[in-house]
Amino acid sequence: MTTAIYYDELFIEHDTGDSHPEAPARLAKIVHQLRRHRHWHPFFQEITRHATDGEISLVHSPEYVKSIAAACENGVLQLDADTWISEKSAEAAKLAAGAGLQAVAAIMHEEFKNAFCLVRPPGHHAEQDRAMGFCLFNNIAIAAKELLCNFGLKRIMIIDWDVHHGNGTQNAFYDNGNVYYLSFHQWPLYPQSGLQEEVGVEAGIGANKNIVFPAGTTALAYMDKFKTEVEKSFQYFQPEFVLLSAGFDAHINDPLADLSLQANDYFEMTRLVCDLAQQIAQGRLVSFLEGGYALTALSDSVEAHIHALNSA
């Protein structure tokens, strides 16, 4: 089988409230649509592990990891202006990170060609010691650390096409030349980071690249830039494994941004990344759900993403 989808009903129990953009309904809508269109049972894989505190602490401080568990146990509802939690949030966050660890191991062991982690809470805004932007633990950064530390890979590429810059992911590897972070995002927009001049420091110089789009950028202009920069980055870095922060909030209908992509664009973007991964990285690719807040647009875009992954 080409593609695996990692999912668990526990993610629905990360309760941010129905009025919050990053609500349980996001995953419920995606799963319903994939099941209705018979894109579920051939791909679904049970998540069999949580990330341990030690694994999470490769990215986050141990004190921060403990603080998230304590906040959930003590009934804290809000970590910052945007990030809400509930009793099950810490457990869901550990399972989301565990899904990434399980997925990259499965790809390395050649059980699947690629995988999609249909998880929440999302991760790319989470800093070393701070929850941000709906995110608790940085799922994709934890997976990258697993590939570096336990599988001995030397060149990991992270492509982040969420419409908001992944500040947490960038900062996790800003001085690390073994991880190439390539972000496509609207600017200015939350979290107000991700300028083009942010290129890394020390050993990480040249392994961080931000591609910014002003509000109102057309899909054609976005796609032309995406194709050029992704191809250029693959040729430059020659990754051994590709991780993808797959937010779908650059969609024209998304309420939190002002770009113009549609579901078919996400199909084409996925196919391009898969084709290049096949040429250069032995096809190894794991993607993680990040943003996307218009439910129909989100579910249509995820379905297109899965279709492209499975046709790789």
Q: Explain this structure to me?
A:
It is a single chain. The chain has 312 residues and is an alpha/beta fold. The chain is built from nine helices and eight strands. It has a single domain (3-310), classed as Arginase, Chain A. Helix 8 links the parallel strand 7 (241-246) and strand 8. The model has no long low-confidence stretch (mean pLDDT 97).
Please give a handful of descriptors for the protein shown.
9 helices, 8 strands, 312 residues
Biggest sheet features: 8 strands, parallel
Please, what is the average pLDDT?
A: 97
Tally of discrete structural domains: 1
Order of helices and strands: EHEHHHEHEHEEHEHEH
Query: How many β-strands, per DSSP?
Result: 8
Tally of DSSP helical segments: 9
**Looking across the biggest beta sheet, what order are the strands in?**
2-1-3-8-7-4-5-6
Q: What sort of overall outline do the alpha carbons produce when their principal axes are compared? A: globular
CATH superfamily: Histone deacetylase domain
CATH arch. level architecture: 3-Layer(aba) Sandwich
Strand content: 5-15%
Helix content: 25-40%
